[in-house]
Amino acid sequence: MIRSEILKEIAPILKDQLIVCNIGIPSQELHAIMDQPSNFYMLGTMGLASSIGLGLALAQPKTVISIDGDGSILTNLGTLPTIGNNCPSNYILMIIDNGSYGSTGDQPTYTGRKTDLAGMARAAGCDNVVEVQDVDCGKALQEAIDAQNGTVLVVKCDSGNAKMPVITMDPVVIRHRFMEAVKA
Amino acid sequence: MNIDKKIVDDLVANDVSFVTTVPCKQLAGVIEEVDQRPEIFHIPSNKEDEGMGLCAGAFMGGKRPAIIMQNTAIGVTINTLATLTQFYRMPLPMIISYRGELREPVACQVEMAVHTKALLEQMLIPTYHFHWQKDVEEFDNILKYTFMANKPVAILTDANFWGGYGDQ
Questions:
Q1: Residue A173: is it exposed, middle or buried by C-beta count within 10 angstroms (0-12/13-18/19+)?
Q2: Which residues of chain A, if any, have pLDDT below 50?
Q3: Which domain holds residue A75?
Q4: Domain with A167 in it: what CATH number?
Q5: pLDDT tens-place string over residues A9-26
Q6: What is residue A113's predicted lDDT score, i.e. its pLDDT?
Q7: What pLDDT score was predicted for residue B168?
Q8: How many domains, chain A?
Q9: Sign, CA torsion A83/A85/A88/A89
């Protein structure tokens, strides 16, 4: 499965959840598959989805799911110790690990070679790290939501992107409707 | 006057309850004070752009955030300031130790100091420079201004403001 197929499959689970979605094609795919006010689309700033999601989870009690990628985690590796040492129970970091930089043309990342993100997350102090294959993503995500124990979920899948339109929504609109969903 | 206490008192009075820090020798006292206050959740970050991501999330979760960092980090965070904090119109007080200014003992610090105000000006970030201890009296107003304007705002605090480097 590629990322967009995973997102389609887990869309019913993501409905009405607070989602912070990674920059580029992941946000475009989520927007096209299931736009909702509780989706925060990153239009820039590669690497910070996991940090924004952690800050949000620490600031309020609802479950927060950050949908991140292997390339973005590698860009902001300092995020793993910060999550490992501060992770609230309502935070789920879901890393869709397709071993490539999807938004820039599928150039390979190091996770497709020797680097093991789940192992790095554990070594960084994250207590609940689960690695699954794409077909098991929905089940693992639902379990993480139900468990409420602060989970890092690494989802191994194939490289590839669906052709989706660029998000043209104004960033302040994205932010405002997201904050209204947080408060609701 | 205890500057560290005054700064943190003003943060608390302005309902700032989420503070991320990247350490600096000059800011050690403020960071310690932040860490001790029950009204503030203190989360150290490993890099300043990561910290700005944490602050963006906390803001959207209903908290007023702040970041404490060195001016060298302006070189690290330009993209984050432009494409996250400014693009989505979020407030962020940045309490910055202004290394490389008068009384600085380390020459390399000057190399970023000479770019600091120019970069902030290029980014259209409102900037205040605390050089004398009395300048801290403005801090409360700067915080109110930041959360009124929904913008990142820089407070540069130099070595003279902190009373020099002692015997370093």
A1: exposed
A2: none
A3: 3-183
A4: 3.40.50.970
A5: 999 999 999 999 999 999
A6: 95
A7: 44
A8: 1
A9: positive
A108 CB within 8 Å of a chain B CB = no
Looking at beta carbons, which residues of chain B come within 8 Å of A47? 49, 53
Among the partner residues A45, A54, A64, nearest to B83 by beta-carbon distance = A45
3-state secondary structure at position A100: strand
Q: Average of pLDDT values for B65-90?
A: 98
What's the distance, Cα to Cα, between the start and end of chain B in Å? 23
Tokens of A70: 């292997």
Task: Return the C-alpha torsion angle B57, B125, A78, B29, nearest 10.
Answer: -100
Nearest-Cα residue of chain A relative to residue B89: A172
pLDDT of B63 over the 60 cut: yes
- The whole-angstrom distance between B116's CA and the closest CA on chain A is 21
Looking at the predicted complex, does its ipTM rise above 0.90? yes
> Domain segments of chain B: what residues?
1-18+68-105+128-161
The answer to whether A20 contacts chain B (CB < 8 Å) is yes
The DSSP secondary-structure symbol of B90 reads -
**Of how many residues is chain A composed?**
184
Residue for token digits 């302006």? B74
A45, A78, A183: residue with CB nearest B45:
A78
pTM above 0.80, yes or no: yes
